[in-house]
Amino acid sequence: MVEFDLVAPRSADEAFAALRAAAPDGAAVLAGGTDLLPDVDEGRQRPRVVVSLRHLPWRTLDWAGPSLTIGSTLPLRALEQDPDLVRRFPGLAEAIRDVGSVALRHRATLGGNVVRAAPTSDLVPVLLALDAEVEIVGPRGTRRLPVDRFVRASRRVDLGPEELVRAVWFPEARPSAYRWQRVRPANDISQVAVAAACSPADRRWRIAVGGVAPRPVRIPSAAEALGAGAPTAAAVARAARAAADAVAFPTDRRASADYRRHLVATLVERVVDAVVRAEGFPR
Amino acid sequence: MTPASETAGRPDARAKLHGAVRYGTDLESPGMLWGALVPAPRPSGAVRRLDLSAARALPGVVAIGPDDLDRLLPPAYRSAERPLFAAASIDYGFQPIAAVAAPTRAAARAAAEAVRATVDPAPVVADVESIFPDWPGPEAVGSPHVAAHVHAVRGDVDAAFRDADRVVRETYRTASVHQVALEPHACLARVDGDRWTVRTSTQSPFGTREDLATMLGLPESAIEVAGTWVGGGFGGKGAPLLEPYALLLARASGRPVRLALDYAEEFRLGRTTLPAVVRMETAVRDGTISGRRVRLLLDVGAALPGRDFATGYSIGFLLGPYRTPTFEVEGFGVRTHKPPFGPHRAPFAPQCAFVVESHLDHVAREVGLDPEAFRAAHLWREGEATPLGQPVGPFGLAAAFERARATARAWRAAAPPGHGVGVAGGFWSTGTGAGGELRLRLAPSEVVLEVGEREIGSGSVVAGLRAVAVRVLGLPADRIRVESLGTAEAPFDSGVFGSRTVAVLGRAIEAAAAELRSILAARLGAGGPVEFGIDGERIHVRADPAGGRIDRPLADLLTPDERGEGGVVVVGKHYGRGGTIDESLVRAGTFYGYTDFTGAAHVAEVAVDRATGAVRVVRYTAFQDVGTLVDPPAARAQVEGGIAMGLGTALTEEAIWSDDGRLLNPGLLDYRIPTFGEVPPIEVEFLEGFPGAGPFGAKGLGEPPIIPVPAAIALAVREACGAHATELPVTAERTARALKLL
User: Fold this and answer.
1) Pick from A1, A181, A188: which is nearest to B106 by CB?
2) Does some domain include residue B146?
3) Contacts of B741 in chain A (CB under 8 A)
4) I need a labelling partner for A142 at 20 to 30 A (CA). Which of A130, A189, B93, B300 fits?
């Protein structure tokens, strides 16, 4: 059995204190634990102290006009069952439903997924397409950072040792979609995934690709190729090519680089088609 | 009389659903130590120096290596074929070089990590094609890489190919698949004086005892192997794996020692089906197969030379259940630095069926014939001889194949664009001829069937044997109980493998019941047939001789000795035989006959995404030749489980080794068995009337249902999108390549 001290603070200040007390070794932070605990069990991570966020009042979903703030410890299962979220953020809902299994999503959280920053995350691509930002709290106050800057590399994020992600903020509801390819549809890691969204405000597209090293990335050239609003078939084909050309795809035990490149082009076409058909698409 | 429904049901279901069953991984004992194996750091080379001192310096740790064996074991252990610990030669990655035990699991892991080994590396043989890039020639026969060579020829094959209208040549490749039993290997050992006892999750307690005796140099009488509830076997738990190390650690420490694999170790150390390359050549004349050449390179891992069963057994399945007047088959079991080849549900037969069905389907297309009609026309019929000269017994495959074709026609008529339907056959045989015994105890109010095996999950032991006894004795199921005993008390049996349990031990029940009836007929003075019945709680013995009906409680018929033993005890035995082949066809190695002929034909409908190659299985129907149905719900469960498991072999399961012999996906994330989301609705139809080797003509059903699955899927994919699969698994990427999308 692996042993560690489990601390479950009742307030953010208590949490900061617990994190400070764990210095210099540092503590592991536990939200749903679906990524952390297998690492601990299999010895990839050996924390002496684990700080659980379970008692913090962060399981929230707050709408403010077009924007949405999702508390970092709200289980994914609650998000995918929220009818407003499913309607107004269809791509986010699709991506959430494709994470692991139902049992896993009862525990897994959006905050945990972003902070753990797995290169194969199914959620980071759609967060990039939605221009999401993380709200970071720490002993020296609160700051906000776009996900694109927060996630720096595989398993690396811009977060101080005493900081925590309190929420993920979405500036506006957007017609959006998420498509992936896996060896096995359920409980697997995507070989390639593509998220797309089109802003009702400026009618501009965002395209992001996952399953690539070292982390999911936005593909501005693909988004630009689509122009504003509904794209022509030729524009979609250009965007698909741009996405395939923009990324250096890896070859590994899950797929070859050639196959990933082929998949990206196909998935871009499909994801754009889904966004155009989504409710509220700006024509 | 006994309602048929009473034969159904699983006496172990409630305990399993409530978590009350103790599996091998639940074994614990007061004062026990936790064991851990120290793996070889490389898949090949020699251990130059092994330093156990740091491990031994840890509190409560016992560490043993090759130098300790002389003090722990009698000298006879040295004659075992394979050393217990790799030393001068490492045969495969993660082969044990030492073992440790400690008071906790974490301490055992830490102790294993504290062992220092210096290894002189040697080149790694990672795969068969790297050894024989141009296929093995005659010189390969004596090669140290070759563990087995089998070769058989019938007729003038060269003439058949010379005179053919058309010759079709193809190469197929199949992947390594793991059993993925939910419960990893686990055991608990203790040594008290001269008694070496191990409780273990095994499919074969007696086979394990025999192997342990050889490995440890002990007499069998010194060893007791007791089973546990087995959390899935699928062939992977038929031979000792952890038991010798647990026993050695128990001997060295004087404490009970528990040894269990974690799942990564299970993938690295488990004995399972390894990759193969098959070359198929078929000559066709006047629309009929006139000759075939079949050549197999089977990776047998670190198998010992001369101890490779797989190559000779598999090659018969590569000829398929198809008439072929002339042929040449040659197979090489090739050694690599992988763990030794081990059985995986119908070892290598699903792969063979994939190759044979896909190839003959392709041959028919090449010569412009209907692929299913072509295969159907060549199927063996009862009374004909197999290519190796064994007469074919009652065989339901042709009938099953016709039923499958009719289903396929209906599905095709309704299939939307992008869908395809595949039909594939396969065959198997009940057991391998290995025999067994069972003790039947007829007590005043119950029947106990005492056996040496434990239930491995299929229900064949706890429910299948009971169902046979219900039918043979005419007593209700709730009066019949199966009791599993250890090797010290149980009658001998070979084990739960080869689809043999109900067939072989069922025949033993028939034999025991016949003896019981004759004993009791004499005591009744009936001189005629004896029946059993229930009156209240008591078992009655009845007969209807000419002089009038006799009906006595069993209790009244027992001798004083039997009252002491709790009933009339008889031992039933069944030692069947494998079939015989025409040995004059054999030029090298061993080929095997079949105890009976079990057929299955399956139909699959798939949808293929033409842009990505992704396959979704839409629906599936199996037609299974079962001889006689013994336990219908259990039979259906076996077929559904076999199909679900076969879908993994067909589409996603593949152990991937690197060029330097490392397993790249030792875990359930990247070794993908199907989830329920991938298993389609399954229909099962049983064909009775083609009797087999078991009681009432029943045939084994543990393995046959998995055999046609990869072939049926691959052929459905071909029909859906035109991609002809020549490699397992049929992944989306391989299909995309076949469609020239990349």
Assistant:
1) A1
2) no
3) 262
4) A130
Inter-chain touch A255–B733, beta carbons under 8 Å: yes
Inform me whether the pLDDT recorded for B3 exceeds 50. Answer: no
Is pLDDT of A114 > 70?
A: yes
Task: Indicate the average pLDDT of chain B.
Answer: 95
Question: In this complex, do B669 and A189 lie within 8 Å of one another by their Cβ atoms?
Answer: yes
Residues B468 and B495 in one domain: yes
Judging contacts by C-beta atoms under 8 Å, the chain A residues touching residue B612 are 181, 263, 266
C-alpha pair distances (Å), B729 with each of A184, B653, B655, B677, B732: 12, 6, 10, 18, 9
Q: What is the pLDDT of residues A228-249, one digit of tens each?
A: 999 999 999 999 999 999 988 9
Which pLDDT score is estimated for A1? 65
Task: Dump pLDDT digits (tens) for B309-358.
Answer: 888 888 999 999 999 999 999 999 999 999 999 999 999 999 999 999 99
Give phi and psi for A15, each to the nearest 5. Answer: -65, -45
Q: Report CB contact under 8 Å: B733, A256.
A: yes
Indicate yes or no: CB of B742 within 8 angstroms of CB of A262: yes
Same domain, B422 and B442: no
- Domains plus CATH for chain A? 5-52 (3.30.43.10), 61-170 (3.30.465.10), 176-276 (3.30.390.50)
Q: Are both B647 and B704 inside the same structural domain? A: yes
CATH number of the domain to which B300 belongs: 3.30.365.10
Question: What ipTM does this complex have?
Answer: 0.93
Whether B353 and B299 map to the same domain: the answer is yes
Q: Do residue A266 and residue B652 have CB atoms under 8 angstroms apart? A: no
CA B710 vs. chain centroid, Å, equals 17
Query: Could you tell me if B607 and B615 are in contact, meaning their C-beta atoms sit under 8 angstroms apart?
Result: yes
The string of pLDDT tens digits covering residues B238-279 is 999 999 999 999 999 999 999 999 999 999 999 999 999 999
10 Å CB burial of residue A170 (0-12, 13-18, 19+) is buried
Q: Is the pLDDT of residue A211 over 90?
A: no
- What band does B8 get if pLDDT is binned at 50, 70 and 90? low
Q: Output the six-digit token pair for A158.
A: 């811009």
Residue that terminates a domain, selected from B269, B299, B329? B269
Q: Let me know whether B293 and B224 are in one domain.
A: no
Q: Tell me the CA distances in angstroms from B80 to B57, B249, B305, one per residue in order.
A: 31, 19, 14
Q: Distance between CA atoms of B125 and B134, rounded to whole angstroms?
A: 16
> Is B10 part of any domain?
no
B373, B482: one domain? no
- Residue where a domain terminates, one of B269, B302, B318: B269
B55 and B80 share a domain? Answer: yes
For B94, the domain range is: 24-122+179-269
Nearest to B451 by CA among B509, B500, B499, B498: B509
User: Which of B155-169, B368-382, B487-501 has the weakest average pLDDT?
Assistant: B487-501
pLDDT (0 to 100) of residue B6? 45
For residue B597, give both structure tokens.
């002929």
Same domain membership, residue B243 and residue B197:
yes
Nearest to residue B452, comparing CAs of B700, B210, B692?
B210
> Which stretches of B335-425 are DSSP H helices?
349-366, 371-378, 397-414
In which band, very low, low, confident or very high, does the pLDDT at A212 lie, cut at 50, 70 and 90? confident
Q: Above 50 in pLDDT, residue A184?
A: yes
Helix axes A233-246, A257-276, angle to 10 degrees: 140
Q: Per-residue pLDDT averaged across B89-116, rounded?
A: 96
Distance CA B670, CA B677 (A): 17
Is residue B2 over pLDDT 80? no
Q: Is residue B105 part of a domain?
A: yes
Chain B residues in contact with A258 (beta carbon < 8 A): 742
